[in-house]
Amino acid sequence: MTGTPAGNTPGNTPENTTAHPGHRVLDGTARARDLRAGVQAEAAALTLLGVPPTLAVVVATDDEGAGWYVRSVSGAARRLGVACEVVDLGASAAPELIEATLARLSSDDRVHGILLQTPLPDGARVEQLAASIVPEKDVDGANPLSAGRLAAGLPAYPPATAAAVLDLLDHHGVEPAGRTAVVVGRSPAVGRPTAQLLLQRDATVQICHRHTKDLAAHTRTADILVVAVGRAGLIRAEHVADGAVVVDVGTNTASDGSLVGDVDAADVARRPGALTPVPGGVGPVTTALLLTHTVRSARAQV
Question: Which of 65, 175, 198, 273 is most buried per CB count within 10 Å?
């Protein structure tokens, strides 16, 4: 992960840059709070029925960022009445052990949601291993079958981050239908499913990636610009059209240890439009939706 240039860290606007009066911040904290309240109420109701919702998180990495995320999910789950079982297999776990663990959890009636945390050890492929998660418990949409159902417009749990992008747009009254949407990033966990969800909402969608020539020429056509590449400060004002809605999915660690996105927020704020903050935008909604999917899965067993 990379830091942003000195003096241009999002949140610390340079002296010669001021936010445009028409620039709107699309905060995710209020929406996440509402989602968490729904999770808490449903978890309490399910527990009274003898079906306490349970999320299992399988970890096979010592990555610091992954560890932080797992602790965040686990803490949020327990605060809301969702049991969270963290299965730490160690950073050198063999693919066969990970696969067997996922299969065991899939057949465990006590478990309603399964999350396979990345990154994985060398030689382990998330697409192959996630196939061992039954779709009914695949609350983060990692199983290729879930991805196929999503692409076909059939019921499936989408990856929580992709779902959070659409949920946040809805919360702030941004309607994708009829708009041009550009997604920067093509990962199977975020970029591609986000594009699928936008397409299902009748947006005209384009995906850009590291081989795209003249990125700004494409991103400037966007009414809705979603950025998910893991490169701090990639998107600046010259990449954004006036009035565009920019959703920053990136989470990068700056040189001072702070969390920043893929968008140079201070620079983009010079344009009229809207931008999700990092932190406080997509992130909290993602965690809340992961737990929402878990209680939905538990409800389906009642």
Answer: 198
3-state secondary structure (DSSP) of residue 11: coil
167 token code pair = 């949920």
Q: Where are the beta strands (DSSP E) in 42-109?
A: 54-59, 83-88
Domains of the chain: residue spans and CATH = 50-135 (3.40.50.10860), 160-282 (3.40.50.720)
| Sign of CA pseudo-dihedral 284, 285, 291, 294 | negative
pTM: 0.91
Return the exposure string of 93-102: e unless at least 16 CB atoms fall within 10 Å of the residue's CB, then b: bebebbbebb
Each residue's pLDDT tens digit, 193-223: 999 999 999 999 999 999 999 999 999 999 9
The amino acid at 154: L
Residues whose CB is less than 8 angstroms from the CB of residue 14 and which lie 6 or more positions away in sequence, other chains included: 7, 8, 266
Digit-coded pLDDT (tens) for 81-111 = 999 999 999 999 999 999 999 999 999 999 9
